[in-house]
Design goal:
single chain; alpha/beta; ABC transporter transmembrane region fold; 2 domains; four-stranded antiparallel sheet; 10 strands; elongated
Length: 589
């Protein structure tokens, strides 16, 4: 029940709507119990007329009209309740989604490094579905079924105590069986959710990497993986189904036996004249109505267990501590002369070995600096720390003399533009991707940024120009085109610090040249930090920082380090020799 209490607690802003719905439902529930009572008097009046000819016709008409009016009022209230319920369902879904999304946005990069996006989204959807079902069921059934049960037994006791006792006994028997049935179902539901999450996450990954799957001829392997997980899922579901149907049989058997007892008592009493035919009709209608609270309570218990297990991961995520408050500093100004300093910075990923060890260096305003080293030596980690995506495990980073840990994430990132190695684009238009950091930018500024990025020529040829859709992650564009869209975005953002993370590593020579021209426009008057393997990308830098096995092993100008024995000169030599061999092969050297 702990998750249910959390559901009630976090939906506090919506309790007013729930109270109104509850009041309407209570009114409707009471109105539904009045027609059976009126039908008793109607039948008695008809029997009196048939037996003694002393029935009151005017009274009969009034009773029939009153039954109709109450039914009409009940229907109006029910319609209003259902409309308000729909409004509540939509509001609740919005509220829960925003709460979840808001929490996710505060998590550090390390959380997303260890979680699969498809799994996160599926957990959200399942939680929303089960929580919404439970709360809707609660507002529609819990209060009315409780009241109906009490009123039904009270009215039955007024007319016949033995029948009231039999119906009263039915409730604890039925509910106990329902409780044990749903409890066992819920225990297995958590295991079932585990396999469902794995399957949904894998399908999402496969769709995202469909080219790799197809070119690796891995379709059968991927299908078998999902099939195996679904088999495990179905085995658990089979156990759930078998348990449910055993308890359901026991529930229905108890209902049949109790109803048999009620019928025997009611019919014998009527046969002996102890109760009137009108009273018999009333008793039979009330007993029939008593089934509704029973079924409703069973439904509520089922929804309760589903919400308890389905919302488990939702609340686990809400209970995690967010490390970023993105709502602060909404209007932070750009720094004019930024400088960054690392002082004895070390960093380790969770449960991993140390990636950076006592790293120290300075980046001054206007510097063009390259981070160079073998793959996996910590270059990208340095960039992630500068972006405040991670926090150092030791040492300090400074921005204009202020410690990073004393600066907000928003302040740091507001002063940095980044061009990624992989094209980080959304499935929207060119314009929306270029203006992602500045959504209110006008068309003229967008065009100017595209021209500076060397991208306007190809964008202008697209069917709708800057309003052309580029597909998921820019799938409709070439690699070079995607990079130039990123550069235009960074130009428009106009941050004083620019980071280029392997920005041309996946491009051919022609595209690299076109992208490089865009980068030159982007780098003017900025502190630039470049992570690159290709030396063509860093040919105009003033300072090289060499990183090897998490340590800074060399700092100097390209000219100085090229003549000095070390990693930079070694990498430079490998690249020159590789190009030389290629030229010799085609006899153009």
């Amino acid at each position: 029940m702990k998750n249910i209490l959390k559901i009630i607690r976090i939906s506090k802003p919506l309790h007013g709507i729930v109270a109104i719905i509850g009041l309407l439902i209570v009114t409707s529930s009471i109105l539904e119990l009045i027609p059976p009572i009126l039908s008793k008097f109607i039948v008695d009046e008809i029997v009196l007329q048939l037996q003694t000819a002393e029935g009151n016709f005017q009274k009969l008409i009034y009773l029939i009209l009153l039954t109709f009016i109450l039914g009409l009022i009940s229907q109006v209230i029910t319609t209003a309740t259902e409309r308000l319920g729909d409004h509540f369902a939509g509001t609740l879904r919005k509220f829960l989604t925003e709460k979840f999304y808001d929490k996710i946005l505060t998590f550090p990069q390390s959380y997303f490094d260890s979680e699969i996006s498809g799994k996160i989204i599926h957990q959200l959807n399942r939680a929303l579905f089960t929580i919404q079902n439970f709360i809707n069921g609660s507002t529609n059934f819990i209060l009315p079924t409780f009241l109906q049960s009490i009123f039904t037994i009270a009215i039955l006791a007024y007319y016949n105590i033995p029948i009231a006792v039999l119906v009263a006994i039915l409730f604890p028997i039925y509910l106990s069986l329902s409780y044990y049935s749903t409890k066992r179902w819920g225990e297995r539901e958590v295991k079932k959710n585990y396999y469902e999450d794995i399957s949904r996450a894998r399908i999402t990954e496969v769709v995202s990497n469909i080219k790799l799957v197809k070119t690796s001829l891995a379709e059968n392997r991927e299908l078998n993986f999902i099939s195996d997980n679904l088999n495990k899922f179905n085995k658990i579901f089979a156990h759930q189904s078998w348990t449910f149907h055993k308890f359901d049989f026991a529930r229905n058997l108890s209902l049949i036996i109790i109803l048999l007892g009620v019928n025997i008592v009611a019919f014998i009493n009527t046969f002996n004249g102890a109760i009137t035919i009108g009273t018999l009709v009333l008793i039979l209608q009330l007993v029939n109505q008593a089934r509704r609270p029973l079924f409703a309570m069973s439904f509520i218990l089922t929804n309760l267990q589903q919400a308890e297990s389905g919302s488990k991961e939702y609340f686990e995520i809400l209970d995690l501590k967010g490390t970023e408050n993105y709502k602060l500093d909404s209007k932070v100004e750009k720094l004019k002369n930024p400088n960054i300093e690392f002082k004895k910075v070390s960093f380790s990923y969770e449960k991993g070995q140390q990636v950076l060890k006592n790293v120290s260096f300075k980046c001054l305003s206007g510097d063009k600096i390259a981070l160079v080293g073998h793959s996996g030596t910590g270059k990208t980690t340095v960039v992630n720390l500068i972006l405040k995506l991670y926090e150092p495990t030791a040492g300090n980073i400074y921005l204009n003399g202020k410690k990073y840990k004393d600066l907000t994430h928003h302040f740091v990132r507001n002063n940095i533009s980044l061009v990624f190695q992989d094209a980080e684009l959304f499935s929207s238009t060119v314009a929306k991707n270029v203006t992602y950091a500045k959504p209110n930018t006008g068309k003229n500024q967008i065009v100017e940024a595209l021209k500076l990025a060397n991208a306007w020529e190809f964008v202008n040829r697209l069917p709708k120009g800057i309003n052309s859709e580029i597909g998921e992650r820019g799938v409709k564009l070439s690699g070079g085109q995607k990079q130039r869209i990123q550069i235009a975005r960074a130009i428009l953002e106009d941050s004083p610090i620019l980071i280029l993370d392997e920005a041309t590593s996946s491009l051919d020579a022609k595209n690299e040249k076109e992208v490089q021209e865009g980068l030159e426009n982007l780098m003017r008057d900025k502190l630039v930090i470049i992570v690159a393997h290709r030396f063509s990308t860093i040919q105009n830098v003033e300072k090289i920082i060499v990183i090897d096995e998490g340590k800074v092993t060399d700092i100097g100008s390209p000219q100085t380090l090229s003549k000095k024995k070390g990693i930079y000169s070694e990498l430079l030599r490998y690249q020159i020799e590789g190009n030389k061999k290629l030229l010799e092969k085609f006899e153009i050297y």
